[in-house]
């Protein structure tokens, strides 16, 4: 997107990075088994992109932003998350 | 209108008093000869409760300008002082302050740049920063130093400008020399300069904004263009503010001020304190019947080409006297003036004179010499050397 | 929404997949909250989060140059005080290891010495990552970087890591701590202490970089954890600069051998058994001083 410049490049659109969907970077996609999930939220804490949301049943992914790094799958203490090949 | 107080003070004290009257909030500063008295005086004013502000005794000039930027972005009115190597050290930050459109004022005790190290007067330090996007004013005397500081805040903070401003006062000749100065009353300066409220944004959790964005090729050139439009737009603002200042405080300022130019064939152009000596030389030459005039350049950035060309209309030869040099090219005033004339059909002969470097004295006889050389170029049609060095100590040179 | 749930470092930033800094900044800002102004310096963090017209920052931030996050923050803090707006507002100065250990060292020292009420957070990925993995004084012994490459005649970086947290503590500042993105409750506790400290605080946050350290993007947290569990990176805190009486906040009961930390990272791949023994010895001596 191209927008108009501001005086001094001061950007008042806080959080406008959300307009760029980094989910397109993925080659591997996380899948969570909510039966196994114990809601420890370690994945939520560790995610560098804030792409994991806390829900009542456990967690869900915001796939618009998940880059598929796999930290969540690696860190899950009960192996509730697996990384599978991204389907395009 | 309050009374102006007559004082006999050094140039640094004059710029400090000018700054003090403008009620800055934050003064980050690092000492360097010959500007040290500025932060010393500001510290005293703060320590005695005469100025409600905070000093930041930073650990280098680079940090001084960095802290100025942080404070100005937060919405504070900011000033500092430096010279020579200090201005050179903060060089990258000068571009950043201007690029981020942060008004602030820096008093510069115009001093030569190393090497060799030299603490005396020339204009290389501010001239080396002429591309930084700061407005630049040069004072002829301490009164001008004080007045230009006040004008600088007002012009820089104008919402049509929003740019930082440098005010140059010559090292030792002005910074450390006592002259009579009329100091405006606080309430009158308050009237002239309202409190600073950044119209374009500030660091505030209530309205979170990002300052100092990464500007990719899609945007950078337009940001630069907007910055240039602002400094071009400042030309009108400078005229307006100078006029208002004259009306209020009774002292006239122009971007370029002519003396004895009306029927002049040859005109000398000077910046800074050498103007005073040049004026004496012109008066002397006039008594001898020579048709010579003088222009004092007060505003160097934005470069006042229109005003200069108007004053120089009909003039045959111009001695552009630069107290700075770009090795391999010319003095700065000469370069800019030559560029302004290059596409004109009618133009005077321009001769560039380099003198006064590193505190070298410029005497009345030197100005007479420069006049003679320019007159000769006009009369013979032979320019001679486009750049002449004046008051050179040949014994030392070769 | 509870403040803790606010994402003040928004998604959509362009950090590498698995970037430790993303995790670090998210968590730090969850503790600091929206009443925070941050300064950042040129580096990965700045480049991935402020590309006009996008910004990942939901708090006010200012980026000025590379070496001056601390001095810009000094100006911000004093201006807030002068304008009567400091109350309840945290000022955090972020710097990468480059902008803290090397080029930013002077500004940092000045800020600490002047006693500003600022929390300085160094996000340490042990090299100049943004410009292509060049060595820094934060680069540990034996690491291969692009300007200290391992080769026939070189072990890679041949100098030890500069003890930045100890140097900052030596300024006598009220609070100094080291933390790791692998130990989030410990990190958050330290961030809270730092921002609640009246005066300067320094936080050294260990933040692995999959791109520069050449490990899997999924390994970032486990590598950080191994650094702590092997004693390569010790988590401690000290008050008033008293590092003789520092408090080690995470003490591994039995330290894992350093090889477990080094092997998954290709930047250490060239190290021989003897090289690893040297590193193990150095870590053993260090941890003895720390009491574990």
Percentage of residues in DSSP E strands of chain A: 15-25%
Q: N-to-C terminal Cα separation of chain A, in Å?
A: 24 Å
- Binned strand content of chain C: 15-25%
The beta-strand count of chain A equals 4
Please state the oligomeric state of the protein chains shown.
Answer: heterotrimer
Q: Please give the order of strands in the largest beta sheet of chain C.
A: 2-1-3-4-8-7-9-10
Helix proportion of residues of chain C, in percent? 25-40%
Mean pLDDT of chain A: 95
- What is the count of DSSP helices of chain A, taking H or I runs of 4+ residues? 2
CATH architecture of chain A: 2-Layer Sandwich
The total of beta strands of chain C comes to: 10
| Helical run tally of chain C | 11
**Order of helices and strands of chain A, N to C?**
EHEEHE
Which strands sit side by side, in order, in the main sheet of chain A? 1-4
Provide an overview of this structure.
Chain A has 88 residues and is α+β, with helices and mostly antiparallel strands. Chain A has a single domain (23-85), classed as 2-Layer Sandwich (Alpha-Beta Plaits), CATH 3.30.70. Chain A is built from 2 helices and 4 strands; from the N terminus they run βαββαβ. Chain A has helices spanning 42-46, 71-75, and strands at 28-32, 52-55, 58-61, 81-85. In chain A, the strands form 2 sheets. A two-stranded antiparallel ribbon of chain A has the order 1-4. Chain A has a two-stranded antiparallel ribbon with strand order 2-3. Chain B is α/β, with parallel strands linked by helices and 398 residues long. Chain B folds into 2 domains: 5-249, 3-Layer(aba) Sandwich (Rossmann fold), CATH 3.40.50.970; 256-397, Rossmann fold, CATH 3.40.50. Chain B contains 14 helices and 16 strands. Chain B has helices spanning 11-21, 37-47, 61-73, 84-89, 91-99, 124-127, 142-157, 186-192, 220-249, 274-287, 305-311, 332-341, 364-380, 394-397; strands at residues 5-10, 26-29, 54-57, 79-82, 105-110, 135-138, 165-170, 178-183, 210-211, 256-259, 266-270, 292-297, 299-301, 317-322, 349-354, 387-389. In chain B, α1 (11-21) packs parallel to α7. The mean pLDDT of chain B is 97. In chain C, strands 2-1-3-4-8-7-9-10 form an 8-stranded mixed beta sheet, with helices on both faces. Chain C has helices spanning 20-32, 44-49, 69-82, 98-102, 105-114, 164-169, 184-196, 210-213, 220-230, 258-262, 273-290, and strands spanning 36-40, 61-63, 90-96, 119-124, 150-151, 154-155, 175-180, 201-206, 235-239, 247-250. With 292 residues, chain C is an alpha/beta fold. In chain C, α3 packs parallel to α5 (105-114). Chain C has a single domain (3-290), classed as Thiamin diphosphate (ThDP)-binding fold, Pyr/PP domains (Rossmann fold, 3-Layer(aba) Sandwich). In chain C, a hairpin with a 2-residue loop joins β5 (150-151) and β6 (154-155). Chains in contact: A-B, A-C, B-C. Chains B and C meet through β3, α3, α5 and β9 of B and β1, β2, α3 and α5 of C.
